[in-house]
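Re-running the complex after MR caught last week's input typo. The corrected sequence lines follow. Everything else is unchanged.
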Amino acid sequence: MSVPEDVLYGSIRELSEAIRTRRLSPVELAEAYLQRLEQLGPRLGAVVTITRERALREARAAEREIAGGQWRGPLHGVPYGVKDLLSTAGDLTTWGAAPYREQRFDFDATIVQRLTKAGAVLVAKLAMIELAGGFGYRQADASFTGPARTPWNLGYWAGGSSSGPGAAVAAALVPFAIGSETWGSITTPCAFSGVTGLRPTYGRVSRHGAMALSWSMDKLGPMCRTADDCGLILAAIAGPDPLDPSASTREYAYARDSSTPRRFRIGVLKNATAGVQEEVAASFEASLRALAEFADLVPDVELPDHPYAMAASLIIDAEGASAFEDLLEAGRAALLTAPEDRHGGYSGTTVFAKDYLKAIRLRGAMGRDLDAVFARYDAVVSPTRGTVAFPIGKPFNEAWPNVPVPPGTRTQPLGAAANVAGLPGLAVPNGFGREGLPTSITFTGRVFEENRLIAAASAYQDRTDWHRRRPPIAGANSPPPR
Amino acid sequence: MPTRREFALTVGAATLGACVRTPSAPPSAPTPTTTPATPTAADANAPAVDALTELVRHRYGAHLSEAQITMVRDDIRGGLRTSDRLRAILLPNSAEPDVVFTVHRGGDR
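Corrected-run output:
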């Protein structure tokens, strides 16, 4: 029996209930997503490896267990994909980069182990920007698998560096995926591909088995359809790990609050729409009106004055040069796809130790000052990106040349501060802009307060349907891109 | 991931302040016309830029073309501007790096 497309675009919560009550077979569901991965994955440039054998083995096991009355929880029998920087035993783990295209590990990353334990079914390893963008790519074509396309308009980029997870979730090739963010790599593809995603607090999720770009800034998180789904996934993947010293021992549990909703207190970042694309601003303003139905909005939230972006830049440069020292020393960066990535890692080798230490000394004050601000709110909102997705085939700085954007405002207003201080952020679709491309709003919060973000974003998604819209690629009959 | 070097190159001595005015994460990159000119800072760093570029050439020159070394030089120039800005912020002696060294003890015999 084929699974209707309506079902494939369902949330995890919906899929899970159908699986638990045995109205939906995990094997048939896995087969349906595998078929879409095979049919649509290449068109979107979203897939590196389809793990068919493992998927069917895990799906059959789930089906047996559930039929026998053993239900592991809301991810049991639910398929998923991972960004191809997570090791999975025996499969290729390419890091999106030609020098590593034959790389294999003999173990599953901790996050994959936890999803397996929760009964989830791994169906694919998904495309990504080479080395998670660590060497400064400036174009969509920066992966040995080619540029990933947003299913909303195949001439445009899915975003990066978690490109495949963005495109694959948007086109219902998987109901959820795991992405990574060092600085914008979950939220950007969520915005450009029109999906929901959570960048957890730094340390919330173990990164053992994940490619390292910046040990002190890398995070792993879910990309899916709803904020509620983010909570379900985070509950399965969060927690301490002796193999990752950064993984926090702080408990995490998630249950969707069905009690009478409280009124939220949401800050609005000062000048949040200054210089962004007109349509992005319009979507954001409409979002504020929707938020005002259930939240007290506090305008003009200002961040403490710190050089967030400069500190983040220097930290990633230095840590990235160390993480990929072997690649640089061997001259194998020359094999990378984007020309700028072939030389982009070398300047990081010249960062002075004293300057790196200065950046991480500044971090303490940044964290303290930001916490004092974010403790006042359930979330602070801002547009996720200042523009819609970039066209494929053009350098990023020529993506939207006619948009009158002051320097810096078109990117991610909170991206540097949130990432350098490890704050959680939740990006959700909030409308459409030019060329039929999605826009997005991000809820940023205090460290370890993901549930407040999820609750606020869920309340927003209860009142809107942007997260339920389907891209025109839906179905396998669309013409291939030219 | 942002293109950090573009950030460093194009921001230069731009005002550091509220993050809404602080360029942050690309992949979007500011257009060239928005690049603030900071000739003084650039000139002051010229000897260091030259020296560090030569260091890269010495260590990695076999892997890089002259055109690539020129681009690495631009990246180094941007990086030094970033470092200059961070160095300009003074911290008390007590402000520790935000890392904790963990001692290791193996199993007792």
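None of the earlier attempt is carried over here. Chain B has three helices and no strands. The helical segments of chain B are 4-11, 39-60, 66-87.
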